[in-house]
Write a structure and sequence with these properties.
globular, 10 helices, eight-stranded parallel beta barrel
């Protein structure tokens, strides 16, 4: 059943290279989160069913210590349309089903924005379409995530949510949708001197999952935040610490009633309780003024 209250759809990510041990999961649950995003093992594990099963079994035991609903984030280096990439993605979907994850996040179209990338994107789309049938049978949704440069860099196809939406529409499967990363959209909009609303709203109809985090947009050096890397764009800060226009975007997030809202805040980060409070403030739509 879709969750109409945005605060009931909130989740928190486990940082990369952290194991989701019981104390971490229980802290996240006690803070008020309903979902947890867990990083998948590397492709070298996912490509081998015996290793993947052993790892998934241990993760299932860990997840059983709390009542959180899991989402799985696939390895960023895996790309469909190649032999090893297709094997890893097939293993990822099976792994997700084994641990009870509703969604797997996948970095699609992570290719240079140039004509020479078109063959790779078509091969990737065909592979995802072929995998979608298995994902449907297992009850797992593959969510294609829009990306952004970590540091200033040339454009990639994945920076534009509408390119991913085109892939999803072409595949035309209920098991494939968009993971709309709000923080990444804020960076790309800043670099293009655009409005993140204009990147997010047109792709909303195919969105099945959101990533939430903050940053300083497309800044080129910043002397007002000496504690931060002066050139890094993809900062993954807590909501409210950057320039994401949360009040303007909150109604868009509320519109997708069944899509989990997952915080991706990198260490060092506040406690789970403080992150939940920041998330609630970000996703709650602004009050409608009373009629005079």
């Amino acid at each position: 059943m879709p969750l109409s209250d945005p605060t009931e759809r909130l989740g928190l990510s486990i940082p990369y290279d952290w194991w989701p041990a019981a104390p971490i999961l229980k802290e996240i649950e006690a803070a008020g989160f309903s979902f947890v995003q867990v990083p998948a093992p590397p492709s070298s594990v996912l490509e081998h069913p015996r290793d993947a099963h052993q790892h998934a079994s241990a993760l299932s035991d860990a997840l059983g210590t709390a009542g959180l609903r899991p989402v799985l984030h696939g390895p960023g280096s895996v790309r469909a349309g190649t032999r090893h990439g297709d094997q890893a993605l097939e293993g990822l979907v099976s792994y997700a089903a084994e641990v009870g994850a509703s969604h797997v996040v996948y970095h699609a179209a992570n290719l240079p924005d140039e004509p020479a990338s078109e063959d790779g994107r078509l091969a990737e789309t065909r592979s995802l379409a072929a995998l979608s049938g298995r994902a449907e049978r297992l009850g797992v949704i593959i969510a294609l995530e829009n990306l952004a440069p970590v540091y200033p860099a040339p454009d990639a196809l994945s920076f534009t949510p509408m390119i991913l939406r085109t892939m999803v529409k072409r595949i035309s499967s209920p098991a494939v949708g968009l993971c709309l990363d709000v923080g990444h959209a804020n960076i790309v909009a800043g670099l293009r001197h655009a409005d993140p609303f204009e990147l997010i709203e047109p792709a909303l109809d195919r969105t099945v999952l959101f990533h939430l985090h903050d940053n300083l947009g497309g800044r080129q050096g910043d002397s007002e935040a000496p504690e931060l890397d002066p050139l890094r764009l993809d900062l993954h800060l807590a909501p409210g610490r950057g320039t994401v226009p949360w009040q303007r975007l909150a109604p868009l997030l509320a519109r997708k009633g069944g899509a989990p809202l997952l915080l991706e805040v990198h260490p060092p980060r506040p406690s789970a309780g403080r992150l939940f409070q920041a998330a609630v403030a970000a996703v709650a739509p602004p009050p409608v003024p009373a009629a005079v």
